[in-house]
Amino acid sequence: MMTAQQPDISERDISSMQYWIYGGGPLSTEQLQLIAQRMNTDRLYCVYGLTEAGPSGTIMLPEEHPGKAGSIGRRGALHTELRMVDEQGNELAGECTGQIQIRTEGMMLGYWNKPEATAECLHSDGWLDSGDLARRDAEGYYWVLGRAKELIISGGVNVYPREIEVALEAHPNIAEVAVFGVPHPQWGETVKAVVVLREPVADLHAELSAYLEPLLADYKRPRLYGQVSALPRNANGKVMKHQLS
User: Of 42, 178, 222, 237, which is the most buried if we count CB atoms within 10 A?
Assistant: First the structure.
């Protein structure tokens, strides 16, 4: 994504590139359209996986992008199985929401000198908890909703940050967004969104609240908003939400 945003990218000769592969986090439809346009390519592959799994996971082919942009695909990489489970670890069938589990021939044996941490995520039947919550649609495509530990529980209701981020990413004035939960004395947690704007606005809360009203249920809409010049990211480009408040 950052490569496509370089102001001089159209002046560079990238015609020798056969494939463009992205991962590390889901992209919105708008972001993928920008990449395809700026890089002048329809050869986009999405990959998803974990270091612990070798790092096998899923792969989504270029021809799947037009209708399923934002998904991580529906097929496992070579020698890789995927499934969805509920909070008790029971396998879920069909269209559902739960946690992704992975089983692959490249699976780790365990965390070095951390048997308890290994036992928490790697099961005796070879399935590994990914820690990622996802939705699987009727066609079998997986849509990552966020990390299980980032799930927001507000007033006893589950709120998935990624669903809100996708809605806000479609706003023409938002360049980046991160959604997370913050403590609330009555509801336990409430939803906060921190955004990077392309142009300043007079009343951020009023504008974004009005924008989201027809798109999301009331309990999903952020009650708090913040603005930064850039989201903090680690060396792999992943947003470090714990540094936002």
Answer: 222
